[in-house]
Amino acid sequence: MTLRRVNGVILVLLAVALLIIVHRNLLNLRDFLDKENPDAGQILPFEAELSPGVRQKMERKGDEIPVLITATEDRLGAVIVAMNSVSHNSKANVVFTIVTLNDTVDHLKAWISKTKLKNVKYRIVIFQPELLNGKISKDPKTLEAAKPLTFARFYLPLYIPDVEKAIYLDDDIVVQGDIQELYETYLKPGHAAAFSDDCDSASVKGIVRGAGNQNNYLGFLDFKKEVIKKLGMRANTCSFNPGVIIANLTEWKNQNITQQLEHWMERNYQEDLYSNTLAESITTPPLLIVFYKHHSPIDPMWHVRHLGITGAGNRYSPQYVRAAKLLHWNGHYKPWGRTSSFSDVWDQWFIPDPTGKFHPVRRHTD
């Protein structure tokens, strides 16, 4: 055998040995990865192959954004729409706290668990009406007694403890922007909350049917009462809408905001301090007193409201409604009812009730 052949055989043997070493190393690496991540055996090369639920789970990163919303049985579809629109339009790590009553829990869980909302992060908290003893009328004919959950926003630190900041949303809303942007609303030092002022946008000069002008303090408080006079508030001060709240819960607790609100609820219960033209805005007056000239603003496009009053369809153009980050159907006419403006926008986010209990009212309904 010549020297050239010997060298050739040696090179082949070296190449084989190298391949064996590389193969063993790859096997060892695979074993290591399997131990580190036992679910990695299934290869999903394209994001499009993932189910929407799995894709949603993978993309939601970052600090939690706490959002509180209330749920009543007769308008549970509204909560579903609000949650769906928030979740769909943001990759943020949103966690919903849903405050409700015992008779709604099973229906709510079924609606979420049997639809695409099953991957949304949420927890359910039961509201205790005893919190309102001595603070509102017990007459079932009054709005206060009929809608106890509307006062849940006064107790934000109770329902969302151990967080610095949180969002409260009314249920009759649709969110079209990324809620991360709303969450990052700047609150001035010392301010416990941000609201949308009623003089800030096309939402201004909202005339609530049967209630008169409700864009200043005079529309909510009785300035003939001595108690209100002594507060030194100007009656023509722009009011704000508490259907969307960004709260600094550290400041809220430090300033005893909940206790202040309860105080004015009790005073009203005893002395009837609210305006006779109050209509349905039963939670607004104590908030106006406590946060008088001591709150931060919200971007007007993050609270386009009065969609639930007469003439809303003439006030806003379809282009403006599409551009809005958050739509609010405050007022008598709700988007799940027959006569609301822009109910088609709300319908886009509605998920049919798997239990068959809730149905939006539409003109074409047989």
What does this structure look like?
This protein has 366 residues and is α/β, with parallel strands linked by helices. It is built from 14 helices and eleven strands. The chain has helices at 3-36, 52-59, 76-88, 105-113, 143-146, 156-159, 179-183, 226-229, 249-254, 257-271, 284-290, 312-315, 318-323, 343-347; strands spanning 61-71, 92-100, 121-126, 165-169, 173-175, 193-197, 207-208, 212-213, 240-248, 296-297, 326-328. Strands 3-2-1-4-9-6-10 form a seven-stranded mixed sheet, sandwiched between helices. Strand 2 (92-100), helix 4 (105-113) and strand 3 (121-126) form a beta-alpha-beta unit. Helix 10 (257-271) crosses helix 11 (284-290). The longest helix has 34 residues, at 3-36. Residues 29-58 and 205-212 have low confidence and may be disordered.
Secondary structure: elements and pairs:
Blueprint: H1 3-36, H2 52-59, E1 61-71, H3 76-88, E2 92-100, H4 105-113, E3 121-126, H5 143-146, H6 156-159, E4 165-169, E5 173-175, H7 179-183, E6 193-197, E7 207-208, E8 212-213, H8 226-229, E9 240-248, H9 249-254, H10 257-271, H11 284-290, E10 296-297, H12 312-315, H13 318-323, E11 326-328, H14 343-347
Helix pairs in contact: 10-11
